[in-house]
Design brief:
- This protein has 195 residues and is an alpha+beta fold.
- The chain folds into 2 domains: 66 residues, wza like fold (2-Layer Sandwich), CATH 3.30.1950.10; 81 residues, Outer membrane lipoprotein wza fold like, CATH 3.10.560.
- The chain has 5 helices and 10 strands.
- The strands form 3 sheets. The chain has a 5-stranded mixed beta sheet. The protein has a 3-stranded antiparallel beta sheet with strand order 2-1-5.
- β8 and β9 form a beta hairpin.
- The chain starts with a helix and ends with a strand.
- The relative contact order is 0.13.
């Protein structure tokens, strides 16, 4: 009996070693790359086995939804996974035993960043609904830099604060936690190089 138990422990540990720390890192990266819910988004919320509840909920301008049994629920700036956990917690208090809640975004509100200066196609760049964009992605969506672009002076302005980067610096960042993620209404400017 002890040998059998020891073998299963060894097999389990071996599988963990083979999976490695990358499994947890990839899971964290997926969660970090999930776009946050914003006003105007249309959510699909399903409680498994419950057919009588509505499934579509439009996020109000204040960032809330009105959910049966729970009333007004704050969902703004949370991922679908976080909202599912929040709803599950609220529902299991008084209404359900271990409810299985699924939350997804059926339709994201269109969100944009503005790219100006020495890029091929300046103007508004629509952010994709299902993933996050970093500064390099936004520059690529604007057609890339022109031949007159100063690659050492790429700035992003958010809420009145401006940060400046070089293209080489931005491209060298491999750690997703350190990448410069763009947010709706950011202003990205590529300066012109001095001749």
């Amino acid at each position: 009996m002890k040998q059998w138990f020891a073998r299963w422990i060894a097999v389990g540990l071996g599988l963990l070693v083979l999976a490695g720390p990358g499994v947890a890192v990839r899971a964290q990266q997926t969660e970090k790359s999930d776009r946050k819910i914003a006003p105007g988004d249309l959510l699909l919320i399903v409680i498994v086995g419950e057919k009588d509840l509505p499934v579509e909920f439009r996020v109000s301008a204040s960032g809330t939804i009105d959910f049966p049994y729970l009333g007004t629920v704050e969902v703004k700036d949370k991922t679908p996974t976080e909202v599912a956990a929040q709803l599950k917690e609220g529902l299991q208090k008084d209404y359900y035993v271990d409810p299985q809640v699924s939350v997804s975004v059926k339709e994201y509100r269109k969100q944009f960043v503005r790219v100006i200066g020495q890029v091929v196609r300046g103007g508004l760049i629509e952010l994709p609904g299902d993933q996050r964009f970093d500064l390099v992605d936004a520059l690529a969506a604007a057609g890339g830099l022109t031949s007159l672009a100063n690659k050492n002076k790429i700035s992003i302005t958010r809420s009145g604060k401006t940060e400046t980067y070089s293209l080489d610096q931005l491209k060298s960042i491999k750690d997703p936690a350190k990448r410069v993620w763009v947010e709706p209404d950011d202003l990205i400017e590529v300066a012109e190089k001095l001749l």
